[in-house]
Amino acid sequence: MSYSIIGSGAIGGALAKRFAAAGIKASIANSRGPDSLADIVSQSNGTVTAVPLDEALAADVVIIAVPFDAVQDAVATAGSWDGRIVVDATNAIKFPEFKPADLGGRASTDIVSETVPGARVVKAFNTIPAAILASEPKEAAASRVVFFSGNDPAARKEVGSLISSLGFAPIDLGTIAQSLHLQQFGSPLVGPSFLKQA
């Protein structure tokens, strides 16, 4: 299974740290090219490698960690998704107000799904602030929780396994519709950091 992170901002950088700490190989890409990722790569002990965007978009599991409004441009050059997994780590935020964007009652992940036709999309890694996401997920006998949801049960299982391998405690919220008022920006689970006892 190959993993990639699209985006090198706060969330993308935090995820790269967690992949490196867990010893799970991943590639990372952004719109500025591999040379701009030298700092992230140098801190990963060879676990995370910088690649061109097209190469990262071809991974088995592609984690999208760019601003919500930039998703369409970020995936524009992707080939056929053919059932590959896309992890939506974005939040639909209206700036500068820092409020939920008006999506007409739709889930932001449903909109992301339209940009990656044929992919199995799972929402994850969007509820925890980046600084906390980057930090050690274990505290004594507890693990930091990562909530996830998606319409494909097998894809949810695969992402849940990845979350666990990264050291977090995965909690499955079900389908995108079931998680709409829990996991979308402005919902109760976005912002707080939860711990699950072993």
UniProtKB/TrEMBL annotation:
- Which keywords does this Swiss-Prot/TrEMBL entry list? Oxidoreductase
**What Gene Ontology molecular function terms does this protein carry?**
oxidoreductase activity
A Pfam family cross-referenced in the UniProt record is: F420_oxidored
Q: Which domain of life is it from?
A: Bacteria
UniProt keyword Oxidoreductase present: yes
Q: Which residues form the Pyrroline-5-carboxylate reductase catalytic N-terminal domain?
A: 4-91
- State the PANTHER family in the record: DUDULIN-RELATED
* Protein name, entry field: Pyrroline-5-carboxylate reductase catalytic N-terminal domain-containing protein
Organism, as annotated: Sinorhizobium meliloti CCNWSX0020
